[in-house]
Every structure is written in C-alpha cells, then in structure tokens.
Specification:
Layout (H helix, E strand, L loop, with lengths): L3 H12 L14 H15 L3 E2 L4 E2 L3 H21 L4 H8 L1 H22 L5 H26 L24
Length: about 170
C-alpha cells in the first residue's frame, strides 16, 4: 500500500499531464531537468525501505523524492531513447524488475570484499554495470526457457470474439 501513490502518479503523468516521449520544445532543457530531479532525490531523500516499511524521512518528502526520481528516470529514458541497449532493457523491463534483486544478492559479497579499496559510489556504479550487462545473456535465456513467467506468452489464452450482426431475413 505504501507504493500505491507511485502508481497514481504514473497514471496522472500518463493521462492528465501527457508527458510523452515525443520530441517537443522543452527537450533542450532535459539535461537540466534530469540533474535537478536526481539532485533532489539524492540530497533530500533518506533511507527508505518499502520491503520493511521503514522510512527515515517525512512521508511527503518520501513521495516527492520518489516522484522526482521517477521523473528523472523517465526524462533520462527520453534523452537516451535511441541508445540500442537502453531500448532493449526497456522492452524487457519486466524481466529486469522481477530478477534484479537476485542478481544484486550475488553482487553484495563482491561489494563487501572490495569496499575497503573502492569508494561506495564507485562500487555501486560497478555493480550497476555488472548487473545490467548480465541481462544481455539472461534476457534471451528467460525468453526461451521461461516465456510464461516473463510475460512473453499468455498463460491463459485469450480469444477475441467478433460481434457478428445477424440479419432477420
């Protein structure tokens, strides 16, 4: 329930504010908007855990930071919409959403081992690169061997029924 406002924000952004990926006159400001969104999220946001319902910041700030972070990701996607591997990850984002925690669990021991040598932000970036590029191998495997679990095929076949008008001749 604590994540429900993000779904509402997504609905509002999609249907009311009509923020689209179509190029427009505001695109020249995208880098500034992206930096502002992530700066707000980084400097104001606190330690939040939706899994454990633990939040160190004011609930309003939590949702403002979440909205700013979501917009930052959205505008970054708009800015990078023609980069080949980014569009590939976007097309199969459901697979990434479902499995990224498992990959992070594999990378956490590596992080702890090298944290004394490498600063945390650099280590986080390295882990991001390792996890995301591992999907170049994992996505084709999941598409081939787990098509029902990765939304590539319907579990329950849905047939389209056509309305056929019957004449009374």
């Amino acid at each position: 329930m604590s994540a429900l406002p993000f779904f509402v924000m997504g609905y509002l952004f999609n249907n009311i504010f009509t923020i689209t990926l179509v190029p427009n006159k505001w695109d020249k400001y995208l880098p500034i908007i992206i930096i502002a969104c992530f700066a707000l999220t980084f400097y104001v946001g606190g330690n939040c855990s939706y899994k454990q319902n633990h939040y160190d910041i004011n609930p309003i700030l939590q949702y403002v930071c979440g909205m700013a972070g979501t917009l930052g990701v959205f505008f970054t996607a708009k800015f990078l919409r023609n980069v080949l591997f980014i569009t590939y990850w976007g097309r199969y984002s459901l697979m990434i959403l479902v499995t990224h925690i498992l990959l992070l669990q594999v990378c956490v021991p590596m992080e702890r081992k090298f944290l004394t040598v490498i600063p945390l932000p650099v280590m986080a970036f390295i882990i991001l690169i390792v996890v995301m590029f591992s999907y170049q191998l994992l996505i084709p495997l999941m598409k081939k061997y787990l098509p029902y679990f990765t939304a590539q095929k319907d579990i329950i076949p849905i047939t389209q029924t056509k309305n056929i008008a019957v004449s009374k001749d």
